[in-house]
């Protein structure tokens, strides 16, 4: 049975590769449009050592250690510590996955009422930093696990898009249905909606953490969103040494993997609860369920010797990067075949539906992920850092060059197409990437020491240009 299945994958892969290479768009844009800060993207990309990146470490030197990325999370703040004598926050904060201290919401440093000129790490505390528990035998035995690479979603609600009894609204989406279910139909924005961090700890497992704005903020106090109670997805077996967590943009799936030579990909269905069919009204009794009740299982393998970085694209596809390439389910993501995500979860193992597969723990339906030629065509070899922002993905492979990809979905085949360009050259060993919307920049985290030396992470800040 497995032999038949593998041969089917082989045939599908051959056709898919031909389609991918024919459809792939690999170019630099003819017109040089404005970047987020009003500048223009240079021909050939940014180069460390040339303006506006005169040196590798041009942002917050001597603070971070072995950083595996950062996330900009919108919140209701205006000034750091709610104090007009401190810098603007840009409507949110950056949460940095530092492996020396831990995951923390960094403090904006700089002139009063101006844009931040540096970041600072706050004193370790339970509301602005995340330290995970150590779990053995289903019990918390200690505290002290540091999250690896993580992800975040902020489900928002536009009530005008909701379906009404007997009147489906085609403008409604799964993500909006989830956001409105959480808020019970109250309109929300990224600044005031609850954000959910998804993180994994090598001594525990997969967790989600709600982030909400500080109640009754005061001058000198905490600004923006702070951590809430941690939720543990206990249906993933213990001892998997999970380090990477990503979540789909619509909140339907969360995925966890490990850098410790474990190829298994674990997925959880509706990690924040099932919002129901978007063509139907929201459930007035909806609540975000305890993570212990959420179904999770092994749905396939990343097929990498070491999985260094995961990222979820705007095409609703998970990508796995490491030794030695970027892999995706089906090889060419998307489409309607049985090996494509997410139908691969249930169409290859006798399940009647996605929910049926999870309810009956029918594992491994997606098999092995395959090399994605959209990334290998851009010479992405052993990426160690990645980030997703809108329709774009940033990859930092070995060799000091970072590449930017734009993802689009073909309206006929449903498969993903890629445009890419060299974004910056002259980096060191990239350990992580983050998009800082408040700074209108992309931050590349580098480890010149190559050993994760304390406070030696070199942060390279370059303008954010998404004009392909």
Please estimate the helix content.
under 10%
Q: What structural class do helix, strand and pairing data support?
A: mainly beta
| Largest sheet strand order | 1-26-25-24-23
Low-confidence parts lasting 5 or more residues at pLDDT below 50?
1-31
Helices, by number, come to 5
Terminal Cα span:
44 Å
Radius of gyration from the CA trace? Answer: 22 Å
The count of strands amounts to 29
Beta strand %: 25-35%
Main beta sheet strand tally, sense and closure: 5 strands, mixed
Describe the structure using short key phrases.
mainly beta, five-stranded mixed sheet, 5 helices, disordered N terminus
Task: Give a written overview of the molecule.
The chain is mostly beta strands. It has 5 helices and 29 strands. The chain has helices at residues 2-23, 174-183, 344-347, 354-359, 373-376, and strands at residues 46-47, 70-74, 92-97, 103-105, 107-109, 118-120, 129-130, 132-136, 139-145, 151-153, 195-200, 206-213, 225-227, 231-232, 244-247, 253-257, 264-269, 296-301, 306-312, 318-323, 326-328, 370-371, 385-389, 392-396, 401-409, 416-425, 430-436, 441-446, 458-463. A 5-stranded mixed β-sheet has the order 1-26-25-24-23, with no helix packed on it. Strands 10, 11, 12, 13 and 14 form a 5-stranded antiparallel β-sheet that branches. It is globular and about 55 Å long. The termini are far apart. The relative contact order is 0.16. Mean pLDDT is 92; it is low at 1-31.
């Amino acid at each position: 049975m497995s032999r038949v299945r593998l041969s089917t994958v082989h045939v599908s892969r051959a056709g898919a590769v031909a389609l991918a290479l024919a459809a792939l768009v690999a170019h630099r844009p003819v017109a040089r449009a404005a970047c987020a800060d009003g500048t223009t993207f240079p021909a050939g990309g940014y180069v460390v050592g040339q303006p506006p990146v005169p040196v590798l470490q041009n942002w917050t030197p001597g603070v971070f250690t072995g950083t595996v990325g950062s996330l900009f999370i919108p919140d209701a703040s205006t000034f750091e510590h709610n104090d007009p004598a401190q810098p603007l926050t840009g409507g949110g904060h950056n949460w940095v996955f530092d492996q020396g201290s831990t995951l923390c919401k960094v403090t904006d440093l700089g002139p009063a009422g101006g844009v931040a000129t540096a970041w600072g790490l706050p004193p370790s505390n339970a509301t602005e930093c995340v330290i995970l528990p150590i779990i053995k035998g289903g019990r918390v035995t200690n505290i002290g696990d540091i999250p690896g690479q993580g992800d975040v979603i902020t489900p928002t609600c536009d009530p005008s898009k909701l379906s009404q009894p007997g009147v489906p609204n085609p403008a409604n989406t799964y993500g909006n249905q989830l956001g409105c279910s959480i808020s019970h139909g109250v309109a929300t924005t990224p600044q005031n909606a609850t954000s959910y961090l998804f993180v994994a700890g090598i001594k525990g497992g997969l967790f989600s953490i709600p982030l909400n704005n500080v109640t009754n903020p005061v001058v000198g106090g905490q600004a923006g969103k702070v951590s809430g109670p941690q939720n543990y997805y206990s249906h993933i077996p213990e001892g998997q040494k999970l380090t990477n967590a990503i979540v789909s943009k619509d909140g339907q799936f969360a995925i966890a993997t490990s850098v410790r030579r474990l190829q298994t990909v674990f997925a959880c269905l509706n990690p924040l609860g099932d919002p129901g069919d978007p063509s139907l009204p929201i459930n007035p009794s909806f609540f975000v369920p305890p993570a212990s009740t959420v179904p999770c299982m092994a749905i396939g393998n990343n097929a990498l010797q070491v999985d260094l970085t995961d990222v979820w694209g705007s095409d609703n596809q998970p990508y796995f990067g490491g030794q030695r390439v970027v892999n995706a389910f089906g090889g060419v993501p998307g489409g309607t075949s049985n090996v494509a995500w997410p139908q691969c979860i249930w169409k290859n193992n006798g399940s009647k539906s996605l929910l049926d597969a999870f309810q009956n723990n029918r594992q491994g339906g997606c098999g092995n992920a395959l090399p994605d030629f959209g990334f290998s065509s851009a010479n992405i070899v052993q990426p160690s850092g990645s980030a997703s922002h809108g329709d774009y993905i940033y990859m930092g492979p070995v060799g000091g060059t970072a590449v930017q990809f734009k993802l689009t979905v073909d309206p006929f085949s449903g498969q993903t197409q890629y445009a890419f360009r060299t974004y910056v050259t002259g980096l060191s060993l990239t350990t992580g990437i983050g998009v800082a919307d408040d700074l209108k920049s992309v931050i590349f985290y580098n480890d010149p020491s190559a050993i994760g030396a304390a406070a030696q992470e070199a942060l390279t800040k370059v303008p954010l240009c998404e004009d392909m």
